[in-house]
Amino acid sequence: MKNSVVIFLLFNFIFISNAFFDSKIVGGSTVQLGQIPSQISLRTQANVHFCGGALISGRWVITSGQCTSGRAHNSINAVAGTVTLNVGGITQRSVRIVQHPQFHIISLANDVSLIETENSFTMTQHIQTINLGVANLGENIAVQLSGFGATQSSGPLSNNLQRVNVVTITNAACISQLGNQNLQVNDAKLCTFLSGRGMCTGDQGGPVIDMNNQLVAIKSWNIQCFQNFPDGHERIFVHRNWILSVIS
């Protein structure tokens, strides 16, 4: 996660409940075990992390379409119940991948995918499902991103799970800041921006959570780590019916 401290942006969070966001995590902080129990690390059979995800039922993980594109249905390990990459966690192997039928690998339209695991995760203090959000968020809403992505540009993955607070922006503002990036920004996308904060390599597919602990989006794209570009996420609200039809 991008963790540059930008002091003048602190006012954006003075209204946020301490029950959801820790006021001490200005540019990002290390997550403690059990704080985000729905977080999933998607890994290869060689145990290499490549994307994030969120546990939405005992046997189903939601992630981005790009994270499963080109991967065999039984080639992904979903790891839950850990905040470190090198130790701990419970692993379940994938047996089915259901990618959104209108996913587009270039524009990243409909960037959502569902992974069914061979066995159900047992719910514990450190492993829990997260509810699918029902709200279609507008602008200036505080949300939390989390992931094992790089913490500096061109840097390695973070061994420790990180979280960071950002704010939603309008699609018009998102398009204006993006310029000519060949990325689709439509009603299915949720954009967030705070200078020096947000996604980096390895965070794709991870959860975007609101202050009611609802999964409101899945992380989709970022342009450059630590640059003044917004991050794009796939809204759960838009795809909720499709998701439920697959996992039910």
Question: Which helices and strands occur, and which strands form pairs?
Answer:
Elements: E1 2-3, E2 29-30, E3 39-43, E4 49-57, E5 60-63, H1 65-68, E6 77-80, E7 90-99, E8 113-117, E9 142-147, E10 162-169, H2 171-178, E11 189-192, E12 197-198, E13 207-210, E14 215-221, E15 231-235, H3 236-247
Antiparallel strand pairs: 1-12, 2-10, 3-4, 3-6, 4-5, 5-8, 6-7, 7-8, 9-10, 9-13, 10-11, 11-15, 13-14, 14-15
Family: Belongs to the peptidase S1 family. CLIP subfamily.
Protein name: Peptidase S1 domain-containing protein
Organism: Polypedilum vanderplanki (Sleeping chironomid midge)
Shape: globular
Strand order of the largest sheet: 9-10-11-15-14-13
- Report the count of strand segments: 15
Task: Determine the oligomeric state from the structure.
Answer: single chain
- CATH homologous superfamily descriptor of the largest domain: Trypsin-like serine proteases
CATH-derived architecture of the largest domain? Beta Barrel
